[in-house]
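Quick one - first record:
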Amino acid sequence: MAMREFLIITKTLADKNRVRMLPALRGGKVCVCHITELFGLALDPVELCRRNCGR
């Protein structure tokens, strides 16, 4: 595993909301509006997470 991949994984696992999203994303792509609804999050934190994760 490359260092960049390792850093992305550890950064993702460091945030509880990101970890909570993993099972929801397991089946494939999920619309951001569905993620915000499922987890009771505002759109801004979800978008920030998406940008930080590089996806």
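second record:
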Amino acid sequence: MRRAAGVGRRVATAARWQNAAMTSAPILHPAASHEPGTSGVDPGLSARASSPRRLAFAATSARSLVECARASGIVPIALDVFGDLDTRRLADACVAVGGGGLAMDRDALLAALAGLRARGDVAGWVAGSGFEAQLGLLAEGALQLPLIGNRPETVRRVRSPAGFAALLDAQGIAHPDFSADPPADPRGWLVKDAHACGGWHVRPVEKMKACAPGEGRYFQRRVAGEPWSCLFLAAGDDVRVVGFSRQIVRALGRRPYVYRGGIGPVALPSAVRELLSATALKLTRALGLLGLNGIDFVLDAAGWPWVLELNPRPTAAIQLFADACEGGLMRAHVEACAGRLPVSGETSSPALVRGFETVFARRAGRIGEAAAAWLAGQAWCCDVPQPGTRHAWGDPLCTVRAQGESVEAVLRRLGERRRSVSLRLQPPMEDPSR
């Protein structure tokens, strides 16, 4: 089974979170009969898009989506696997939709969406991370409540490794060499899983004993350079770049490419910005993209961007750009899904840089009352687990945040805060420096 961050602690607390969450969840009723389709938004949503009162947000961890919605004046309802303290505090209501490991429970999610539609005061729902391995569930959910974002068939096209590589070739977009089969010479090649996220699945082929083809598995040549992300708004035939961020990617144990967080907005040379904007436009027109999307790319030593993948949904980077659009970023997402983009795009010289980084457990343990209270008391800490939560090695303990005038200053503060959490939550003999 694929190893994913969060499996240990989330399974251990699934029953407690389920019981606690359902006490404050909206009352669920049988779904009303409707045929909204899966076209990003239903026909009635465009008229309501300028001022949606309530929206639902479904993800493994919905905290960043819920937080973004609040900043946009939208009342959020969380459909969430983790059930962290701050998610429950920020959301108008929370519904537990966790299944085994980090997977969403199909019946729980569909029942929640059907019940929200029956209420009549929820305009639709936004999908975050967690559907990569459950693409069919995304389509089923869109039949229960209008999906505000990319069409399920669009997401499926993006998640087809061979099809997406062919699309990049057809559009003249630079990307690393791709292969559906194990390369004859494994040196310099990585194996990836299109049904996963977070980098836990990325491994050097030459270090794996066996690497047979499988569903979602593909091979990509490694490109040396810095990992970056481009967040943009799409409206079917036009785009607005929201901003660029540097990704924090480091090894964790034997996993060499674990995604830890990001730093942004960060300025890039105008030629690179224009090239990535053109790339976003090409992909949008080819795929009919809607709303917030993210392009992951590597910037090589010569300053040339190589596209790694497209995330056809609001990404974790939204927390770096909460004030990038007038009226709020989540409101801009809804507007873009209805065909309306903000007048202005990203700022070439941002004055303030923000950053966030996940702190991972270095050994198994349990979050006690005092530890949870301490985490909740730090203004720079989020994704705070409930007291009593158990975690395994590699599970996320929380997320730390920082801001400053430069990337270097933010990295330094993130490191200090990461070490503070590790020293507080891990035994003294544990090395907190990584």
